[in-house]
Automatic annotation (TrEMBL):
Keywords: Gluconeogenesis, Glycolysis, Isomerase. Gene3D superfamilies: Phosphoglycerate mutase-like. This is 2,3-bisphosphoglycerate-dependent phosphoglycerate mutase. GO terms for molecular function: phosphoglycerate mutase activity. It catalyses: (2R)-2-phosphoglycerate = (2R)-3-phosphoglycerate. The gene is gpmA_2. GO terms for biological process: gluconeogenesis; glycolytic process. Transmembrane segments: none annotated. The active site is at 10 (tele-phosphohistidine intermediate), 88 (proton donor/acceptor). It comes from Roseibium aggregatum. Its EC number is 5.4.2.11. Homodimer.
Length: 206
């Protein structure tokens, strides 16, 4: 049985381009982001991959990325579940702030702590640890059972919600996952064993 799980971060958004903390806001994809989503679909098509079910967040940039990928695969209309559990990390009070301006206001070290520590959230927002605490239960209750049953599954989500998943899948430490960079619009292909362990992983950015 092929237990296939593909994770893909959304294509570049307008706020990515402007270097803003995005969180749960809903900026659109840039032209580059749309192109990245088309390329992701083409890569998956070239590998002759198709899907039985899709999951995405409640945010439009992830949903649009998924729609474009499925269009490239000729799978528009695929059964798709959308849930806030897969949303990007909530940046709270610094949402919408330019990252350079945030460094000027709060100091380089403080902003670095908010961005790169595992368990220290920005004011009013979430840490990566808090993000994982909503992503992983959803993964284990809704996504993983389908993968283990043989449903080829794609998840289109966000840098930090996917880091939470990757940390669990690859058994990484907080220090290791914080160093992991996820390219926009780049599929990562996992094949799992009957217990949900990773048999193989292929990052199409490589």
């Amino acid at each position: 049985m092929d237990r296939l799980l593909v994770l893909v971060r959304h294509g570049q958004s307008d706020w990515n381009l402007k270097n803003l903390f995005t969180g749960w806001k809903n900026p659109d994809l840039t032209e580059q982001g749309v192109a990245e989503a088309h390329k992701a679909g083409e890569q998956l098509r070239d590998l002759k991959l198709s899907f039985d079910v899709a999951f995405t967040s409640d945010l439009s940039r992830a949903q649009k990325t998924l729609d474009i990928i499925l269009e490239e695969l000729g799978q528009t209309g695929l059964e798709t579940f959308k849930d806030q559990a897969l949303n990007e990390r909530d940046y709270g009070d610094i949402t919408g702030m330019n990252k350079d301006e945030a460094r000027e206001k709060f100091g380089e070290e403080q902003v670095h702590i908010w961005r790169r520590s595992y368990d220290i959230p920005p004011p009013g927002g979430e840490s990566l640890k808090m993000t994982a605490e909503r992503v992983l239960p959803y993964y284990k209750s809704e996504i993983l059972p389908r993968v283990l049953a043989g449903s080829r599954t794609i998840v289109a989500a966000h840098g930090n919600s996917l880091r939470s998943l990757i940390m669990d899948l690859e058994d990484l430490s907080p220090e290791e996952i914080l160093k992991r960079e996820l390219g926009t619009g780049t599929p990562i292909i996992y094949r799992l064993d009957e217990n949900g362990g990773v048999v193989s992983v292929q990052d199409l950015a490589d």
